[in-house]
Structure prediction request, 327 residues.
Amino acid sequence: MTRDKVLAILKQNNDYVSGEKISAGLGVSRMAVSQAVKSLRNDGYNIISVTNKGYLLQENPQIDKLTIGELMTYLPEERIEQILCLDTIDSTNTKLRELAFDNAPTGYVVIANQQTNGRGRRGRSFVSPKDTGIYMSILLRPDCLPHECPTITAWTAVSVCNAIEKVTGISPSIKWVNDLLINNKKICGILSELSVESEGGHVQHIIVGIGINTNEESEDFPDEIKNIATSIYAETGKKTTRAQLAAEIINELDAMMKDWPHERDRYLKQYRKLNITTGKDIKVISGNSGKNAKALEINKDFSLKVMYEDGTIADISSGEVSTKLST
Ligand code: BTN
Prediction:
C-alpha cells in the first residue's frame, strides 16, 4: 500500500517532493519510501531523485498500469478501500462471488489486468489478454426481484457508454441487450450473475462483470472473433489510460446505483438513443437455434419487441440476438 500511496503522491505533484515530506505524510519511514520508489522504478516508472530536492516522476505515456496506485489519482481514498486490484485472476466475477458470500459490501469492485478464464454469456469465454483490457466486476445488492435484473444490466450498458465517452470522446452504441460496439464491432461485453434467496425469491446480490477491449491491436484478437471484436485503440488510433477509464466507470456505476430505480426514464431514453438493434432484421437465438425476426422497439422494461416472420409479435427480455452486421 505504501508503494501505491507514494505513486499517487508523485503523480499528483509536477515538482520535486522530498522523501521527508512523503514519509511524514504517509506516517512511514524514509526507508519505506525509498523501497517504494525502487519497486516503482523496477516496474518502469521513471522517478528522478535529486539530493535536497526529493523525487520527481517523469510523465511516461507508455506506462499504462492498472494498480491501486494509478486508481488513486482518480478516486478518493474511501472508494479505493472498496476495490481489489489484481494482476491475474481466473475471472473477476468468480472472485467477487466468493467475496460476496463473505459479506463484501455493495459497490465492492474486483479489477484485474488479465483473466485466465474470463467468462462470457451463454457459456462462452471472454478473451482477456494481459495489460491491454479492463476486466472488472462490481457487487450490487439492490432491493429487487430477479425479473428486474435485466434492467440493471441495461442501465450498466448506458453507464459504461457514458464513461467511455467522457474519457475517450467516442460514444459506443449498444446492441441489445448489453454489447457495446464501435463501428459495428464489439468492444465491451457485460455479464450479470444473480444470487437469489431460495425462500423469498429475493435477489441477494448481483455481480455485474464488464470486459472492455481497450488498447489491443487488431492482430491481438483470435481469428474466430477478428471480424466481430475490436478495441477502442483499434478503432480510434488513440491509447486510453486504463486506470482513468476504470475509475470513470466506477463513478458512473456508483451514480447509477443512487439513481436506481427512480431515474428509469432517463436511462431508458439514453438506452433507446444508443441502441442500434431496432429497425434491423435479426435472429433471436435460443439454445442452439435462431428464429428470424425484425427488431421493433425497446420496451419500457428494456425488453425487445420483435416481429417474427409469421407476423407474431413477442417481447424478449433475456437471451441474445444477432444482427447481419455483428454477432
Ligand atoms: C459477453 O459479452 O458475453 C460478456 C463478457 C463479460 C466479460 C467480463 S470481464 C470481467 C468479468 N469477469 C468475467 O469472467 N466476465 C466478465
